[in-house]
Write a structure and sequence with these properties.
The chain is an all-alpha fold and 102 residues long. The protein contains 4 helices and no strands. It has helices at residues 6-23, 53-66, 74-87, 91-95.
């Protein structure tokens, strides 16, 4: 299976921003570039489309604390990654000066 590239992520992120801007004036006028993307494959688990234990834990935490249901693959893995960054105090390294959208 072909893995996602930074170039693909940038393209999809900018498409998503365009769609969001079409529906809300509150979306800032920004453009994502390759320097804005950190692609860390260490959180992928068994692969694209497969849940991870950490993702499932994050999903349950979100449901318990915020009453928000996540799907077990993509958003759960993203939240698990963000939680791990925060635990390791790496948010400054990767997230300084940017907004994180889950």
């Amino acid at each position: 299976m072909k893995m996602t590239s930074v170039k693909t992520i940038v393209k999809l992120a900018n498409k998503a921003l365009k769609l969001l801007k079409e529906h809300s004036r509150e979306v800032p006028s920004v453009e994502i570039s390759e320097k804005d993307v950190v692609l860390d494959r260490g959180y992928l688990g068994d692969g694209y489309g497969f849940p991870t234990v950490e993702g499932l834990r994050a999903m349950l935490l979100m449901e318990k604390t915020e009453h928000i249901e996540l799907e077990p693959i993509y958003t759960a893995k993203a939240l698990a990654t963000l939680i791990d960054f925060a635990k390791k105090n790496q948010t400054d390294r990767y997230c300084s000066g940017i907004r994180i959208i889950l």
